[in-house]
Amino acid sequence: MKLKKILLLSRDPDIIRIFKAFHNEGHTVTVIKNISSACKALDKFLDSIDLVFIHQNNSKEDYSPLIQMINKRSISFINPHIVVVDNRKDNFALKIGADIVCHRFPDEKDIDLIIHDDRSSLNLNAIINHAASMIRIKDTQTAEHCRNTAKISSALASLYMQYFEGKSLLWHQNLKTAALLHDIGKVLISESVLRKSSRLTDDEFRIMKSHTKLGGELFKNMMNAYPGFELLSLCAEVCFYHHERFDGTGYPDGLKGDGIPLEARIVAIADVFDALTSDRYYRNARTFDEALQIMRYEEEGHFDPKLFDLFVNNSDIFIQIKLQMK
Ligand SMILES: [Fe+2]
Ligand SMILES: [Fe+2]
Question: Closest-lying ligand to the alpha carbon of 146?
């Protein structure tokens, strides 16, 4: 297992003790007690850090400069993963670019899982970053869309965890990765279809739709080679099913309702919101209000109603995220 590098921002002795145990196992845990020291520490070795854990702990110190610095300067989209524990109900940290906000301190078991995540042993992060670069080389518009979809999905999954039990920090991190790669199948679609500025013919649309299966098969093959990795099965499901619709009229398999994996239902909302609010080769970006109207009325039946309510009720968060990604 690859040893992790973790930056912990906390003044709570109990929390520090939990993380010191990981340090004693061989992981590198740097404990920082204030934001300016954290910014200085990260400035030197940002890209080697796997996890930034910010424990707000009733401190009035503003941690936004730290999160903004990470999002601005990090080369990898996967690392560092930013976990914030902050009990303020407005989810401030999501708006400024944290990956997940927990309103109370997570279980020790949950932290243990994310620290000991097996993806490191396969060097999956390197494979994932490589795959993300392939998308960038193929088409910058698709690459930006994948990055935005990951950030929006990550925030929606974070809200989901605040309202519904049963999901872990590791699940959340894996979902963010899967969302980043949801359109990886487009790497195999010809540029003439991908960048066409006018309406696609039926044949071209059939080719475009095949990106779901092409991406899904890629991860299914990896799963056969490396069985037991939840990350790979989650990537496969998100690639296959992010264009399914809750009413059963989507593709590739016409899955319906809860038959569509939860992760694909989350990514579906992020995917459409980002697509509508971004310029496309065939049209200009819609305003946020227009996008929300389209998602509510023209796309009726598309989304899981429970998740869509969560999305609409917190639309200010997603708008902030999108503004920051521009
Ligand atoms: Fe897609
Ligand atoms: Fe997409």
Answer: 2
**Helix 202-209 vs helix 211-225: angle between axes, to the nearest 10 degrees?**
20
Say which ligand is closest to the CA of 278. 2
pLDDT of 313 reads: 97
Distance 149 CA to ligand 1 centre (A): 10
Please report which ligand is nearest the Cα atom of 275.
2
The two structure tokens encoding residue 28: 């590198």
Smallest-distance ligand from the CA of 147:
2
Do 252 and 212 meet the contact criterion of CB atoms below 8 Å apart? yes
Instruction: Report domain extents, the chain.
Output: 5-116, 122-325
Residue 53's pLDDT is 95
Q: Tell me, what's the pLDDT at 255?
A: 98
Ligand 1 center from residue 159 Cα (angstroms): 23
Radius of gyration in angstroms for the set of CA atoms belonging to the chain, rounded to a whole number: 20
CA 67 – ligand 1 centroid, Å: 29
Residue 194 tokens read as 């991908």
Ligand 2: centre distance to CA 165 (Å): 27
Give the distance between the most distant pair of CA atoms in the chain. 63
Task: Taking each helix axis as running N to C, give the angle between helix 262-276 and helix 305-313, from 0 to 180 degrees, rounded to the nearest 10.
Answer: 50
Residues with Cβ–ion distance below 5 A, ligand 1: 183
Q: What is the dihedral of CA 164, 159, 123, 184, to 10 degrees?
A: 110
- Measuring CA to CA, which residue among 238, 79, 265 is closest to residue 173? 79
Ligand 1: centre distance to CA 234 (Å):
15
Q: In the chain, which stretches have pLDDT less than 70?
A: 1, 58-59, 118-123
What topology does CATH give the domain 122-325? Hypothetical protein af1432 (1.10.3210)
How many Å lie between the centroid of ligand 1 and the Cα of residue 53?
Answer: 31
Write the DSSP symbol of residue 76.
-
Fold for 5-116, please state it. Rossmann fold (3.40.50)
194 C-alpha to ligand 1 centroid (Å): 11
